[in-house]
Amino acid sequence: MNKPQLRVGVTTDRITGVSAPARRVHRAILRAFASTGRPPDRDSLTAVTGPSLDALLRELHDRDVVRLDERGGILAAYPFSGRPTTHTVAIAGGATVYAMCAIDALGMSAMLGRDTTIRSTDPHNGHQVTVTVHDGQAAWEPVTAVVVNGVTGTSADEDCCVPAVDRCCSVLNFFTDPASAHSWLAARPAVSGVVLDQGEAMQTGVDTFGRLLE
Predict the structure, then answer these.
(1) Most CB atoms within 10 A, among 96, 148, 152, 166?
(2) What is the DSSP code (8-state) at residue 35?
(3) Distance CA 11, CA 208 (A)
(4) What pLDDT digit, counting tens, does each position of 100-123 carry?
(5) Domain boundaries 88-209, corresponding CATH code
(6) pLDDT tens across 16-33, in order?
(7) What ranges do the domains of the chain cover?
(8) Residue-wise over 44-53: b if at least 16 C-beta within 10 A, else e?
(9) Helices (H), ranges, the chain
(10) How far apart are CA 37 and CA 55, in angstroms?
(11) pTM of the model as a whole
(12) Parallel, antiparallel, or unpaired for β 88-91 and 96-99?
């Protein structure tokens, strides 16, 4: 099976089209999540943007850099989720946060320049997977753990139009071993995915998020 072409989290093409003022807001949102585990309040963001906040948030939403609710509140800023997920990340010197998916969780340490401890659950067998990242090196428990990288659906048009949270995030999970991952994929014909070993998964997270705050 060929590795699917994914648009996971905040990819380079999404960021390229974001204006400089919107990027300042984006960085402020990411730093708030890392410090508190929650999105920032409007007052703190308005201090960065002035009265243009709503337009800048809408720009970030339209680029699929953040996700907003129907009232304009921040639901997520890849790699962070403002709602509970199965992936929690304890950040050294910061908060314990929710990650949107396994790849997002693995990219946080490089993005923040801090050690992290990731705890997640294999969706096939319900067992815990823990990844501790220290000085850029990851230790996995169990040692057989892997990650599924994939998308739902097969349409190229969907890939361009559907946000990553709907297209990818429910698929990108930790598994205790390759057999569990393959069994989970086999039961889901609508998912196009591959099993990444630990090095591949970690590198994907670093490549996706490692330079996001620069």
Answers:
(1) 148
(2) H
(3) 6
(4) 999 999 999 999 999 999 999 999
(5) 3.30.450.410
(6) 789 999 999 999 999 999
(7) 12-81, 88-209
(8) ebeeebeeeb
(9) 12-16, 20-36, 42-49, 53-62, 102-112, 156-161, 164-167, 178-186, 198-209
(10) 24
(11) 0.89
(12) antiparallel
